[in-house]
Specification:
Layout lengths: L2 H5 L5 E2 L24 H13 L2 H5 L1 H22 L3 H8 L4 H17 L1 H17 L2 E5 L12 H9 L12 E7 L7 H13 L8 E9 L5 H4 L5 E6 L6 H12 L5 E5 L9 H12 L3 E11 L1 H13 L11 E6 L5 E4 L1 H7 L12 H12 L2 E10 L42
Parallel strand pairs: 1-10, 3-4, 3-6, 4-5, 7-10
Antiparallel strand pairs: 2-8, 6-9, 7-8, 7-9
GO molecular function: glycosyltransferase activity
Protein name: Glycosyltransferase
Pfam families: Glyco_transf_7C
């Protein structure tokens, strides 16, 4: 597990606590739970977590922390049912829901034959539930056959959106960074994100959306501009520099906005997202907050289905009943709300970070040190895309060399021409 996250020096204040004093992930407007129910289904979900290659890929440090808890539940099943056809089917196809259900039925039979094993694995599953940082989620309505939500489908949906009204948008500025040089899914996700941001209970004249594209050229400008209030391009080469990209958006389009929302391009938000989070500042009197405790990282099928439901069907929420994916706990990234004053005080995100990982935790650490930071318990929905490399070729994390918490923006930040504080 990440050293910063394990030590928890960030002093992020939860808004409610669970039975043991830890944060309880209960959303005020919806709830996501792992694939619970009968014990056999719970245990089988831990088998899936040990087999599915998407689990270590979604968050390597979360996997390293959680793996031993998964295996404490799953390995006894492998030892007893490893030669069973249902188990072998799931090993060969870890995302096959029918294979998962077949194994759950065999596990139920095993528990009926061996109640002592059932009792032991129930206790281990309880321990795992309280300790793992990636759990498994499958809604009761999950099924194959969703309509493909590709760029062309999103473009057709965008054509039917109303024209944005004139307005200063002085309540909220949303900044969304994007880099998709090979059409790996992020531009599709961004378009869904922007469509959801246009369908909000907050009056359209009260907020603005800025998209900043990091690329050698303005590759997706024609797709983005119709859905955003501001489009910026920063000429970026090599590994994605999310920090510089976000900083440029804030610095050059802030205007008179009273609050900032820094939002990843792969998040599909509900209709009340902006109003709810903007109101939280007045309700709680803090300087910054994470809106979420859990993030549901969807599989490809669920991503298509939920985009169609939210953007095509204009559902007010993102319906989780038809979703399948990995439920990540205490994610420090994806979205941060804060005041422009605090953003300026800490000098924005640290522009020395390149490639995957670290910049969000670094920012959260500095923000919570300089101001009051709160964590709420919404469930975020993350759309599928091809995963980026998470480590260098030698196995080292991309940003292990960056001293955490040392950036202050003293040399400036968000320069459109070049990254600040480096030799670029």
């Amino acid at each position: 597990m990440c050293e910063l996250r394990a030590a928890n020096p960030m002093r992020i204040q939860p808004t409610r606590s669970g039975r043991d004093g830890t944060f309880a992930a209960v959303s005020p407007y919806r709830r996501a739970e792992p694939a619970t129910g009968d014990l056999a289904t719970r245990v089988t979900s831990y088998v899936v977590l040990t087999l599915d290659p998407a689990v270590p890929d979604v968050a390597a440090d979360y996997w390293m922390h959680s793996e031993r808890f998964y295996r404490a539940v799953a390995d006894p099943i492998g030892a007893r049912l490893g030669g069973d056809l249902a188990y072998r089917r799931l090993v060969a196809h870890p995302t096959d829901v029918e294979a998962e259900r077949a194994l759950a039925a065999r596990v139920a039979d095993l528990f009926a034959e061996d109640p002592a094993l059932a009792e032991e694995l129930a206790a281990r599953a309880d321990v795992a539930d309280d300790n793992v940082y990636i759990n498994y989620f499958r809604g009761p309505d999950y099924a194959l056959g969703a309509r493909t939500a590709d760029v062309e489908r999103l473009t057709s949906l965008a054509a039917g959106t109303p024209v944005r009204p004139d307005g200063r948008g002085d309540e909220v500025l949303v900044v969304v960074p994007i880099s998709d040089r090979d059409g790996a899914g992020r531009i599709r996700n961004l378009m869904a994100c922007l469509l959801a941001l246009r369908d909000q209970t907050m009056p359209a004249s009260d907020y603005r959306v800025t998209v900043v594209e990091f690329d050698e050229k303005p590759r997706w400008r024609d797709r983005i501009e119709p859905l955003a209030d501001h489009y910026l391009h920063v000429t970026g080469h090599g590994l994605f520099n999310k920090s510089w990209t976000v900083n440029a958006g804030v610095r050059h389009t802030l205007g008179a906005a009273r609050t900032l929302c820094l939002l990843d391009a792969d998040i599909l938000v509900d209709r009340d997202f902006l109003r709810r989070n903007h109101a939280r500042f007045a309700e709680h009197g803090h300087d910054a907050h994470l809106p979420h405790t859990e993030m549901l990282s969807l599989d490809a099928q669920s991503s298509d289905r939920l985009i169609e439901d939210r953007c095509g069907g204009r559902r007010p929420e993102v319906p989780l009943a038809g979703a399948r994916g990995l439920l990540l706990r205490d994610v420090p990234g994806a979205c941060l709300w804060l005041t422009p004053e605090l953003f300026a005080e800490v000098g924005g995100l640290d522009e020395r970070y390149r490639g995957w990982g670290g910049e969000d935790e670094d920012m959260l650490y500095r923000v919570a040190t300089a101001g009051t930071a709160v964590q709420f318990d919404d469930v975020f929905v993350h759309l599928a895309h091809r995963r980026p490399a998470m480590r260098r070729e030698d196995g080292a994390p991309f940003n292990a060399h960056v001293p955490v918490g040392t950036w202050n923006g003293a040399q400036g930040y968000g320069d459109l021409e070049r990254v600040t504080g480096t030799d670029d």
